[in-house]
Amino acid sequence: MDPGEKILSKILSMDQMDAWVAAEKAAGRRIGFTCGSFDLLHAGHVEYLGKARELCDRLIVAVNSDASVSRYKNPLRPVVPERERMYVIAGLAAVDVVTLMEEDRPLSLLLRWKPDLYIKGGDYAEDALRSGDAVKEYGGKVAVVRSGFETSSSKLMERIELLNAHAGPDSAFNIASRQGCQGLVLLDRDGTLIRNVPFLHDPAKVEILPGVIDGLLKLQGAGLRLAIVTNQQGIGLGYYSVQDFIAVNQRLLRELGGRGIRISKIYFCPHSLAEQCSCRKPAAGMITRAMRDFGTTPEQTFLVGDSDDDMQAGADAGCQTVRVGEDGFRAAAEQILSLAGT
Ligand SMILES: [Zn+2]
Predict the structure, then answer these.
(1) What is the pLDDT of residues 107-156, one digit of tens each?
(2) What is the CA(232)–ligand 1 centre distance, in A?
(3) Half-sphere exposure of 133 (CA within 13 A, CB side)
(4) CB 323 within 8 A of CB 206
(5) Distance from Cα 249 to the centre of ligand 1, integer Å
(6) Bond before 270 cis per omega within 30 degrees
(7) Alpha-carbon distance 119 to 49, whole Å?
(8) Ligand 1 centre and the CA of 277: distance in Å?
(9) Which of 92, 130, 253, 303 is the most exposed place for a label (fewest CB within 10 A)?
């Protein structure tokens, strides 16, 4: 068996798990069960799973599905899709089998397989474990394993974000910022940067509008920083997911990045009109938040858009607004440069 196959053979469906558990129990082996999202695997996970395996003869790890991670953690997570998270966990020597956990909590899996030990990591006190009582009821035990490492997937993500906020010494962006940040340009996405496709969620349909590349290069060259502010009601209405939205942005950022254009941040409103949030344009929420994040005054902040809602949002935030008209984005960029006095 090649190494890849050996790892895949440790990933079992629910039905395969039923048979595996029955066979291991029949052989008199003590079964341990643990679960988690294991999004960005780190030293704490490896230490924890190693300690968990020492408490039993066979260790089952149930990995939270993508949908369940989005539900209980953060709609933007996970970073790594479930198939790959399961593969990484299955690659660890301490782990005997891996299965997918569709539900947020392990209760139904614990009752299905009745492992001898339910093992949990982190700071959970034994009596705080929601499923602990059910385990004790069928005669199992609960064990808590603590890690000596301070790290977590969330901390790793914060660290990555922090590093991303610092321009590398050789990047074009750093050269621009050394010339001094002259202000912030907030860009509507659909109909301003790319052709408007209703409820766009297919990266293949991203089409950058004429004049956008030239215009953005000029704005960036003048020391203005660029960010996107976009309404994405399609998320709130369930027409497409946050991940679909991110995939569209990835396509856009790649094309812009290939031309040397850096978008510093993307602000989006995922709500439907009915939710009456404070971020959906014409409300000014995304714009005031961007000004706070970038530390710019309304006078140093410019909003470019193609709709009345864009203009209203920008005006309500007190910043200068420029509408992309028939002359296209390049003309709008020139207008901003003259307003900015650069
Ligand atoms: Zn909103």
Answers:
(1) 999 999 999 999 998 665 555 567 888 999 999 999 999 888 888 888 88
(2) 8
(3) 3
(4) no
(5) 18
(6) no
(7) 9
(8) 5
(9) 130
